[in-house]
Write a structure and sequence with these properties.
Layout (H helix, E strand, L loop, with lengths): L1 E6 L3 H14 L4 E5 L10 H6 L3 E5 L7 E5 L4 E5 L11 E6 L6 E7 L9 H23 L3 E6 L23 H12 L2 E3 L13 E2 L11 E2 L2 E6 H4 L2 E6 L15 E5 L2
Parallel strand pairs: 1-2, 7-8
Antiparallel strand pairs: 1-14, 2-4, 3-4, 5-6, 6-7, 8-12, 9-12, 10-11, 13-14
Helix pairs in contact: 3-4
This protein binds one DNA strand through loops.
Amino acid sequence: MQIATWNVNSLSVRLPQVLDWLRTNPVEALGLQELKLVDEKFPHAAFEELGYHAVSFGQKTYNGVAWISRAPLQDVVRNIPGHDDTQARVIAGTLPTAAGPLRLVNGYFVNGQAPGSDKFAYKMAWLEALQAWLREQLAQWRRLALVGDFNIAPEDRDSFDPVGLAGSIHHTDEERAHFRGLLGLGLHDAFRLFEQPDKTFSWWDYRMLGFQKNRGLRIDHILVSDALKDGVQACQVDRAPRKNPQPSDHAPVVATLAG
DNA sequence: ATGACGCTCTTAGAGCGA
């Protein structure tokens, strides 16, 4: 079975592309970020026509996350419990599978703008709260996947310009320490379980022909728990939708799991 | 480089993303 993550940068604008992608990539579950849509406007009918269920957690103008899944998710949680937040950034639920329940956590991690800014401080606090909550989630659900737009390039090889961008947003030691903290909980970057082509990225700036020049970052990730690790069969970035007219600036990331 | 490009809210220009 396959699970995927995709920052669509407005579901209203990208809906036809998401539906097209699901027709050719009929994954079991797809985590979406940056819906920029209130829940009342979530296009449930369009996904139901394709045989999918959806749970959304949106807000006006910014942020917003959703899970699209073949089977309805159970025990759905919106945002990090106990962490006061005005921004809709997390949705989690449990997918029943033949191998047992699969906990699916989808996050639109904070961007953080620049080190030293208020937004960066918010990012650090948010990452702290996420890690504490995930520790609990992992204790409760052995089979867990954390997917989303992490807004962290975990290592130098995940950036088109690690020297020029050293210390800037997505590249700071503080952000990378938080990413390693997640790995320390017993999570594994599915993409790095396999040999991958150099300079594989999941986001490219709209400006300056970023995609054409492959000036990108790998900031969209799928992390899997210890119990899932050995069953991961593949993990890839699907660059194809980034070539669409009027694309999202992010490409989907897909992981193939046993079962 | 206070840039670029795209989306939202609102209807000309600001805020934000990454």
